[in-house]
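Form 7-S
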Amino acid sequence: MSNQNNHEIQSLLAELDHRQHAGAADLRRAWAIDALLTNQLSVAEAAAAAGVSEVEFRGWLRQRNLSQATTAISIKEPPVAQPEISVVIPVFNEQENIDELHSRLVKVLGSDKNYELLFVDDGSDDLSAGVVRRIQRNDSAVKLLSLSRNFGQQAAIAAGLDYSRGRAVIILDSDLQDPPEVISEMINKWRDGARVVCAVRRGRKENLIKRGAYHAFYRTYRALSVVEIHLDSGDFCLLDRTVVDHLKSLPERNRFLRGLRSWVGFEQVVVLYERGPRNAGKTKYSWGRLIRLALDGIFSLSSFPLRVASYAGVLTCLGGLGYLAFAVVSHFINQRVPVGWTSTVALILLLGGMQLILLGVLGEYVARVYDETKQRPLYIVESFSDGQKES
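Output:
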């Protein structure tokens, strides 16, 4: 009987020891899972903390339906190094220029690969995306962001800013009218402390009519805008990451980067350069698209067109009072009042035309407000490839 009791006691003690050991293991495993779910440990580190192999730990997660949860919170992996420079390049049917552009950018930025070249394919219907993918096979710095259709250059630039990772972001057209060699000077200005570096065109190789139109637009825009912009500067610029983050937070759909980068402020400097002719292909900006871009710029940062109605009303009243005074004076001097259909019809047409123009201006603002209230996305991404994986 005594031997049987001793055996039972030994069995009970062994069971208690086993349970205590199992309880400690469960506690370790629970702590490891909690650290994994809060992204404090990677899977390998959590498995080591639980005292099991990584394979066994992953199997245990799958059995308890935790694999989906850990995937959803992005299990901690080795961090990807942030490049110093991102070059955002909107592309629309530029297959003839991409190879030359890439070659010149690599020469300018060097071989240390501390940069990324982010090509944003804005719904091209030529082989632009294929050319970028071919280059990507031999250059890990090249990324390709493909939009689902043509959303316009400003939307493509916004997409590039959203997907860029560099501490400074350069925006560069793909037609090579803006020489990539200017980038070196822009980077030096940024390293000296500037937050925004605008490339200002000292001259441009375009016909007289276009040069005159651009000249008039920039000066008109500067006079009407609530912020001061750099004259003759396009989208070619360098933006510090702080500025990029502020631009990304702006919600409007009808974007005009040249005005928005001035609106956000910060220290801004300029570099001068000569804008060359197109390297190849035809411009994608017709006169209609240029006028639309100009209107986007004016209406996005100026309420002056709305105030034109007040100014026009005051001028019309003054004109009417002046004409009344002229009629009274003529009556007393010449004993007759000027009459005639010509002046009457002219005044009616003038006032009617002014009213229609002002209604059009008001309608433009209302249409933009309506466009904003729909809250549609600025762009839709079809795919993104960083050279290693595609999403």
